[in-house]
Design a protein that fits this description.
The protein is of the alpha/beta class. Helices cover 51% and strands 13% of the residues. The structure holds tryptophan (TRP).
């Protein structure tokens, strides 16, 4: 059984050390575990709820994407995308909005906190509150349910949103599922092992407390100058320090091995001065962060590379979301006739992928993991419409090897037909079946790969 793990980061800020150690690093680590199928995305529609500065949002999308990539995320293995590149997400959001009781949203913490603040200031309870903020949890539910995630790693503040997601999913399943559930009920994964880093003043590191240590921005210099500002007690060099109560030590421990931490702790207890301890912390952080920072700077200087990775990720995500959305549309009574469908899918797919790359209108293969955890691929035509769907493969390498052969061999060597049915045969294995009617398009699409 594969476990689908999904999480998103709202793109309103620049990642700091706490975001890295508390969210990005553990997510990347989890994504390398066997049996984990990970979906990581930039929640840029969510960003619009909190931020009306287009430049800040554009910059943050780039910085957060570059941070994931610089942190070593393997985009071949995971599905890494931007929420706003998946048009099925807002579409699902609307369907879910239509089954979500308003009373459920009235209870959302973020909304209630905003109302409480207004009441405390003696103004209209809903003053300044948008419908976006009010229904924020429905959009989050759409993010999660779109890919039927089992586990959602989040901070404690998001647990309520996961409960709401389950409520909404259950309601939709009940109304439209007819005993055949559309949505998996996801679980929040709040990991106590994961480091919640203290900030400069010892409170949780957070942009809203203005106590963060920058991760990459400003280079080693900015990181060092922040470390030098970490608040400590007033013990002099030579005096024993209490490592456990020092947030400097907590920061060190979040990056060092247990052995390194034990040494550091002993030195503090033996009277190492705070100035030396800060220098040591800086050096230990640099050991991990310097190579990533270098990759980050390279990526930020070549945003097209980031864009390409995200577009490939969007293709991969949409290989799942587009057909799933078709099923959901049908379930609620919005089935598209197949003639209309070819137009819609074509337009949608290019809308999702055209940004910044006019030259990319070619047939392509997209591989993905299906609901059974098996690996498949689709061949899409230049408009993004599906020409064929492959059989299931046990691992991505096999699927990749077949795609490679299809891209490099003579199309006619793979094509075989019987009556109305056509299929592609690679090494005596039937890898995909399709209607003989589609044969010309399939042949033409395959031919574009060898021309290229
Ligand atoms: N609300 C999350 C946060 O602020 C971000 C987010 C949006 C998210 N959609 C999600 C997290 C889906 C997990 C799953 O942290």
């Amino acid at each position: 059984m594969t476990t689908r793990v999904l999480t998103g980061i709202t793109t309103t800020g620049t990642p700091h050390l706490g975001n890295y150690a508390g969210a990005i690093r553990p997510a990347i680590e989890a994504s390398t575990q066997p049996g984990v199928d990970a979906y990581f995305f930039m929640a840029d529609y969510h960003a619009l709820i909190k931020c009306e500065d287009p430049q800040r949002i554009a910059r943050s999308r780039l910085e957060i994407a570059a941070t994931w990539l610089a942190g070593g995320l393997d985009v071949e293995r995971v599905t890494f995308y931007r929420q706003s590149d998946i048009p099925e997400i807002p579409e699902l959001c609307w369907m879910l909005t239509c089954v979500t009781p308003k009373g459920l949203m009235n209870r959302a913490h973020a909304y209630k906190a905003a109302v409480d603040q207004n009441e405390a200031r003696d103004i209209e309870p809903d003053d300044g509150i948008t419908l976006g903020l009010f229904s924020y949890p429905v959009l989050m539910a759409a993010d999660i349910l779109m890919f039927n995630a089992h586990k959602v790693p989040v901070g404690r503040d998001q647990i309520q949103h996961l409960e709401m997601t389950r409520d909404i999913a259950q309601r939709f399943n009940h109304l439209y599922g007819r005993g055949n559930d559309f949505f998996v009920l996801p679980e929040a994964q709040v990991d106590d092992e994961v480091a919640t880093l203290p900030g400069l003043d010892g409170r949780k590191m957070s942009k809203s407390y203005n106590n963060t240590i920058p991760l990459f921005e400003g280079g080693a210099k900015a990181m060092k100058s922040a470390i030098m500002r970490i608040v400590t007690d007033s013990k002099e060099p030579g005096e024993p320090k209490d490592a456990e109560s020092s947030h400097l030590y907590m920061l060190y421990r979040a990056f060092a091995t247990p052995e390194e931490s034990a040494v550091f702790r002993r030195e503090l207890e033996d009277g190492m001065g705070w100035g030396d301890a800060k220098q040591r912390l800086f050096e230990r952080l640099e050991q991990d962060i310097a190579p990533m920072r270098e990759r980050y700077m390279e990526l930020m200087a070549a945003p097209q590379r980031i864009e390409d990775a995200l577009q490939a990720g969007a293709d991969k995500a949409r290989a799942l979301s587009a057909p799933f959305m078709e099923r959901l549309r049908e379930a609620v009574g919005l089935k598209t006739s197949s003639a209309a469908l070819s137009v819609t899918t074509g337009r949608d797919a290019s809308a999702g992928t055209s940004e910044g790359k006019a030259g990319r209108k070619k047939p392509r293969f997209v591989n993905f993991r299906d609901e059974a955890g098996q690996f498949r691929f689709r061949l899409l035509d230049e408009t993004g419409q599906q020409l064929l769907l492959s059989i299931q493969f046990g691992n991505p390498k096999e699927a990749g090897a077949v795609i490679k052969q299809l891209q490099t061999g003579d199309p006619d060597a793979f094509i075989s037909t019987r009556d109305e049915q056509a299929c592609l045969v690679v090494d005596e294995l039937v890898v995909a079946e399709f209607s003989a009617e589609d044969l010309p398009q399939v042949r033409q699409a395959l031919a574009t790969f060898i021309e290229a």
